[in-house]
């Protein structure tokens, strides 16, 4: 579906939307300023004023076209205003994850040579104060919220966002002509943002994304997936990540949709019922948690409840496959008995979910499809702005990331000899092509300009033929791209077999007893796993079965609990090849989290960190095999 306005740059997207909706009360954003209050809406007239006032402030205080401005903030309306103000004056958005410690914030600020730094809460402002003196290019910090620590405001370089906006309002008449000239001067090849990769090893690299990179991806996404003016998106994935930035922010605006910000990642379940979104952009973790909650509830229910659920799932599966007639009548009953309750938990208005950032287990995808909650799984990298492929609504193929977007070409390069064995373009899409597995490559206007001040890393990523090497392994299956795993994640066992842990981990994620799982076994005779149990389920099981324990460690090491996981491992391993089977495991007493450094901000596992942290458990697993 085409966008609601024509545009070639992000700045033009904003100005065109402002013009289109200037004489209306069209809602642009929604926010919840008080946890105990209700959501309030912000129309395009207010957005336009806020963006232009902030732009005037930045211009007055020396932000030139091409200058970098950093944002350390959760998803919120102010983040959108800062970004859009930057885009219309030719500035470059450098967004930081709020989970970053001060030393990593300092590295990005210094590397990007940021001049201005916006920080949200007191916790983030504290980081800014700590690193300010070490960042020679930084001359001002703006606190979005009033810090609770009074002495923070004594710093001469620190000011409040409200004061900035008030000053900008007074400055706008003076800077209006300059801002308008800058908007006209912005070209598609100009840099729009630096997005620093949250890699699991080494220092982060700043991917340079131009207006052309991002705009081409917005338009391609709209040709692939329909976004309407009456849609409402609940935003909670980090806006500093390319997935949420393009799909959950710019693409939603380009369709005229409303963007409502969740209070936090932890409140998404509650906010869904308050916002009643029609679209949610998410990572698989949300769907895994919902799936496990539902299946756990069913298994704890009566035999009749289980029978009804299984019948409803089978009916839903047939309906999702396109069968009608009697199945359609049965689906109405299945909805009333089972699925409507799940839909109510998601707000009751979902048209579709979009899943990205990591692989979605096919079984979980099938479950949501059977419930009438379509999940469009996609794939891409920060360096590809980010979307390369996505499933289309009504043509979902679970277990794949769908078809290549228009304007983009995806290649498969054989790992053994470097030969390109498949090449698929989104314009002339073959639906019957299949290929063997290899590294996934990408060409197109969405491919980044390069890495900021790092030509060597750019050359490693983009070859002389302009193919971007993703580092992911995949293949085409009937025209749909299927991801196997990361090349760097490949495990080579003692027998020289290559094993990709991703599909194995996805298989076990459907177990109600497993919250998280990491496969280990490099240079070992067999595969094993570190398992984070579903602690709530374990506690409930212990209470029901009179299992006494003094701590979580006592509980997970008890023979009755160990026995449950041995049976679960054996059962699920039956579906795996001999060299892939999990032969042993250790239960981990803590959840892998972003805060503990074991997950990236987009909830991908940092394997090396986990392997180092739990090296004693891994050594214990394989001690008898040496």
From TrEMBL:
Keywords: ATP-binding, Ligase, Nucleotide-binding. CDD domains: VL_LC_FACS_like (cd05907). It catalyses: a long-chain fatty acid + ATP + CoA = a long-chain fatty acyl-CoA + AMP + diphosphate. InterPro entries: AMP-bd_C_sf, AMP-binding_CS, AMP-dep_synth/lig_dom, ANL_N_sf. Residues 22-452 form the AMP-dependent synthetase/ligase domain. PROSITE patterns: AMP_BINDING. GO terms for molecular function: ATP binding; long-chain fatty acid-CoA ligase activity. Gene3D superfamilies: 3.30.300.30, N-terminal domain of ligase-like. It comes from the Bacteria. One of its GO terms (cellular component) is membrane. This is Long-chain fatty acid--CoA ligase.
């Amino acid at each position: 579906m085409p966008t609601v306005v024509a545009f070639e740059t992000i700045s033009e997207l904003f100005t065109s939307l402002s013009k289109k909706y200037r004489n209306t009360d069209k809602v642009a954003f929604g926010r919840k300023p008080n946890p105990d209050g209700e959501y309030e809406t912000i129309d395009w007239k207010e957005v336009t004023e806020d963006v232009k006032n902030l732009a005037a402030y930045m211009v007055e205080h020396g932000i030139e076209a091409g200058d970098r401005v950093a944002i350390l903030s959760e998803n919120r309306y102010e983040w959108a205003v800062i970004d859009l103000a930057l885009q219309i004056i030719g500035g470059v958005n450098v967004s930081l994850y709020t989970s970053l410690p001060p030393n990593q914030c300092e590295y990005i600020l210094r590397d990007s040579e940021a001049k201005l730094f916006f920080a949200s809460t007191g916790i983030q402002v504290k980081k800014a104060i700590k690193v300010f003196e070490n960042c020679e290019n930084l001359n001002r910090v703006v606190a979005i919220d009033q810090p609770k620590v009074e002495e923070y405001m004594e710093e001469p370089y620190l000011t409040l966002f409200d004061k900035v906006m008030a000053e900008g309002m007074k400055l706008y008449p003076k800077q209006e002509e300059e801002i308008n000239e800058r908007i006209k001067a912005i070209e598609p090849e100009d840099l729009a943002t630096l997005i620093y990769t949250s890699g699991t090893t080494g220092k982060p690299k700043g991917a340079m994304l131009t207006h052309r990179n991002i705009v081409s991806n917005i338009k391609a996404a709209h040709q692939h997936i329909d976004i309407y003016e009456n849609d409402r998106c609940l935003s909670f994935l980090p806006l500093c990540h390319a997935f949420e930035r393009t799909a959950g922010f710019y693409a939603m605006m380009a369709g005229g949709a409303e963007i409502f910000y969740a209070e936090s990642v932890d409140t998404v379940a509650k906010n869904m019922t308050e916002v009643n979104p029609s679209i949610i952009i998410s990572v698989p973790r949300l769907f895994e948690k919902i799936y496990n909650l539902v299946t756990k509830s069913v298994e704890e229910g009566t035999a009749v409840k289980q029978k009804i659920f299984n019948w409803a799932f089978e009916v839903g599966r047939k309906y999702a496959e396109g069968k009608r007639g009697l199945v359609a009548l049965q689906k109405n009953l299945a909805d009333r008995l089972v699925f409507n309750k799940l839909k109510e938990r998601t707000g009751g208005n979902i048209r579709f979910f979009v899943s990205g950032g990591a692989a979605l287990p096919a079984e979980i995808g099938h479950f949501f499809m059977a419930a009438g909650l379509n999940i469009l799984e996609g794939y891409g990298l920060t360096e590809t702005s980010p979307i390369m492929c996505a499933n289309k609504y009504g043509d979902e193929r679970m277990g794949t990331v769908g078809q290549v977007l228009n304007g983009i070409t995806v290649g498969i390069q054989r790992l053994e000899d470097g030969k390109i064995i498949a090449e698929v373009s989104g314009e002339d899409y073959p639906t019957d092509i299949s290929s063997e597995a290899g590294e996934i490559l990408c060409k197109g206007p969405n491919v980044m300009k390069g890495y900021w001040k790092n030509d060597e890393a750019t050359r490693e990523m983009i070859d002389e033929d302009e193919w971007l090497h993703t580092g992911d392994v995949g293949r085409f299956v009937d025209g749909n791209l299927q991801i196997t795993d990361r090349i760097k994640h490949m495990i080579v066992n003692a027998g020289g077999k290559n094993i990709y842990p991703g599909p194995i981990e996805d298989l076990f994620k459907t177990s109600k007893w497993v919250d998280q799982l990491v496969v280990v076994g490099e240079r070992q005779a067999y595969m094993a796993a570190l398992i984070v149990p579903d602690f709530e389920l374990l506690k409930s099981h212990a209470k029901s079965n009179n299992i006494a324990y003094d701590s979580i460690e006592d509980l997970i090491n008890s023979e009755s609990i160990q026995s449950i996981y041995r049976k679960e491992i054996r059962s699920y391993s039956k579906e795996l090849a001999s060299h892939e089977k999990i032969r042993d495991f250790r239960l981990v007493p803590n959840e892998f989290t972003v805060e503990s450094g074991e997950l990236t901000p987009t909830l991908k596992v940092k394997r090396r960190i986990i392997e180092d942290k739990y090296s004693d458990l891994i050594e214990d697993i394989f001690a008898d095999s040496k």
